[in-house]
Amino acid sequence: MTPDDLVRKHPRLWHMAEDGCWPSIAEHGLLSTSALLDLYGISGERRVAIERRHRPESVAIARPGFAGAVVRDQKPMSQAALLRCLDGMAPEDWYVALNARVFFWPTLRRLTGLLGAGAYRGNVQTVLTLDTRSIVDAYAATIELSPINSGSTIMRPARRGALTFSRIADFPGEPSRRQAGRPCAVAEVVVPDRVAPVVDHVLAVHRVHAGAILEELWRSPRAEPGDVAPDRFQSPSRP
What we know:
By secondary structure, this protein is α+β, with helices and mostly antiparallel strands. Helix content is 27%, strand content 24%. The chain has a single domain, classed as Heat-Labile Enterotoxin, Chain A (Alpha-Beta Complex). The protein has a four-stranded antiparallel beta sheet with strand order 1-7-13-14.
């Protein structure tokens, strides 16, 4: 795959964040969990628990002079299932790998699937719509792709390991997926560490509940009317 291929197939990316977090994201950027823990000065055993272990619930963190932040839970993943599908890595290494990255959905189908998941559909979420070309141009040296939902082990969890995240030109990095005999779809677009400043790449920001747009928080002057649905985030019939 080439960067142009990625942009052509997935011209928009989406990121779901906690309600109320847009001012902090606009100020500090979209930070990986590890980068967020650095910013808030979280260390010691508390950091180990957040960064290297499974998070069954979201974790609120605070620091004097900061607005506060929430580290998202990992409810779609279970320790037992992860042990069965993880290749060549310990679970704590997989958690570290996930927590070192910022994740984007390349299709509305995947975004709306998360918005409608049992753990999240009852809560208001903040949804960022981003320009893929802008992200690819800015992070060409580090951007990665994943052929699976790396943070989920629901149903029949896909195997995963050190080669799950690969550079665009190497996608998919896992030999077993390359040899499957059919094109491998991009499930996640990933940027290690952080996307900052993020307002350079965001087209629009919305508060969303059960797929309905409650409020538009911000819109880039570059955004066109068709960049987001006018009243709902609805999944197309095909990815």
